[in-house]
Amino acid sequence: MQLKYCAILINLISMSAIAAETLPPILDFKPNCSPTIINQLAVRDVYLTEDFQSQTDQQIELSMFDTSMFKLQRAAKQQHADAIMLMALNKTTITKSSQTSDYKRVIEYQADLVTFCTDDRSLSATPTPYNHLGKKLTVTTFNWQVSETAEESLASLAKAVKKPQADVSFTHIYGIPMSASSQVLFSTLGPASVQLSLEKNQSAWLYGRNLWFILINDKVEFASSTTALLSAYGKNWISFNDNFDDNPWTLFGKINIRDELADVLTQSDHKAVKISSHQYAIKHQNNTLIMDFADYKPNATKPVNTELTQFTLHSNHFTQPIAQLQFSPIDTQGFSNVVNGKNATLADRSAARYINNDQQNSFNLTQDKQWFMLSSFILVKQANEVITRVKLTSPLTTEKYTQGTFAQAAVALNLPQTKSEFMAHYPDAEDNYDSVNIDADNYTIEAIFESEQDNALLVEFEISYLD
Predict the structure, then answer these.
(1) What's the whole-model pTM score?
(2) Residue 154 to residue 309: CA distance in whole angstroms
(3) 270 touches 284 (CB < 8 A)
(4) CB-based contact 215:182 (threshold 8 Å)
(5) How would DSSP label each residue in 298-349?
(6) What is the spatial distance between Cα 92 and Cα 64, in angstroms, rounded to a whole number?
(7) Which pLDDT tens digit goes with each residue over 13-47?
């Protein structure tokens, strides 16, 4: 495998230029307002220790990390990002020579390049997966509770799962055999981060933010490191999972993500057929492996590298594309009462009226635990079979898998469409520039608008019941 080396040869002139340059920061804490992810990077930097003369091992590691993060910040600035969230980080030592003390060190990381919300650049108390020093930060809080709820149980089960071997072959994906049932999937990898019901007897299980399984009639027929089901905003709802988001995959135990095209074709024991400029396929018995590549240019003086970026494994009788999402029809009369708050009864708020357990669409593992999807725009939480929170938000799915618009969903639920209409509908509401807050006896409402103008349109809504 051909490796790219990053030499740290920064002279005094370039150091002065760097010091004068304002670069997007690497965040220690997530923004309060969900940012827009403009790009998701997966980078592998390889260094030779001979480039770090007269330094201790600790100094060498710090110099490598600082260099990689500086390159990341420069890339973020070129793409006009406001900030960076470091989502995954792995440091390894490879190919140590028995003849010399020289060896190579590798830093692999994944990062989200983000832009802040226009009117809210503040940061929350929720830590990012890795801070600007490359360290994990945990925040411990204490809560009194009588027993573990179902949604807390999901999180506990996910944490208890041993990190799987992230290898893909013609027959297995992360230890899951093709044609395995959902029971095998659950018992091996734990609860999925997201579960979606699809048409044509299909269902989708997402682990972490990128490992997808598609089941047909409860059998795994498709697995991929990428699909077009969830939007970047939808993925951002999912809690980071070390088992999958910090566990780079391999093919056949020897081909790594970001390996160059020529090396992949050489290492493969089976002939790969070119199906497009950046896509190759290998058919073996009943299954087909598809490998996606992308071009990377390390710098202006070096040639473009074509590197492995994604995999898809599917049975030969699986037919693309993945089926459309399937949602149960919403009882809009009762649900509009729930959303408006004023006249909602416990019968209106019965979870069984809206959540179909035989057709589950849910975000199981988020920072706010489990949410159920009623559409691409509507999320609900329930406790003791009663709806406790409803959220209307930006589309959680990509355009191809999104039916309707946010505005249409709001109109169907008889929600006021503008800030002035909200203030008229709720005379006791508090005007907070681009948001409106309502505090009633048994519920609270927060409505967010595209600006602070009276005619500004509604862009996000949430009602939380207090009983």
Answers:
(1) 0.67
(2) 30
(3) yes
(4) yes
(5) SSTTSPPEEEEEEEEEEETT--SSPPPB--PPP-HHHHHHHHH-TT--TTTT
(6) 12
(7) 343 344 445 789 999 888 888 889 999 888 888 87
